[in-house]
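Board notes (copied after class):
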Amino acid sequence: MRKLENSELGRLEADAFRQVKKVPICVVLDNVRSSHNTGSLFRTGDALLIEKLYLCGITATPPDKEIRKTALGAEHTVEWEYAASTEEVAIRLKKEGYLVIAIEQVENSISLTDYLPPEGAKLALIFGNEVKGVQQEVVDLCDFALEIPQYGTKHSFNVSVSAGIVLWDLFNKIGHQRVGE
């Protein structure tokens, strides 16, 4: 087998990417402190055609050399917005008809493996700070929480890894069916 060259991958140009129909998923970063994690979320969001990335609180915004290092240009293709308050973003997205979902370990969370989004749902996924997670005030505003099953001795994944797992899972459950509709 031979590795493919980038020119053989059939990737969209930036202008075409902006025009393609996106998967109805927004990602909200609640006080993510590492610019590398933020850049990784731009890159994952580009790969999986998310609608928008909300950068809240202390989360770094472009232009930022550390974001650029991990985003590899995706900070120019994925739509994004900065907001000082994650709570205000959650409230606005609920008003816009999104299911607002904390990705967090909370009472009565739903296992990601058991969750199937409702037909036609728009999802807003909130990922929290690397140490403190999603703020309790934000969790209180969410419709529910999804939890990634874990079986080892540690109780968490890195936020960019969590986002990759959740986004890939939800893309497979709903996203690829909606791409190109």
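Comment from the instructor: DSSP finds six helices and seven strands in the chain. Residues 27-178 form a domain with the Alpha/beta knot fold (CATH 3.40.1280.10).
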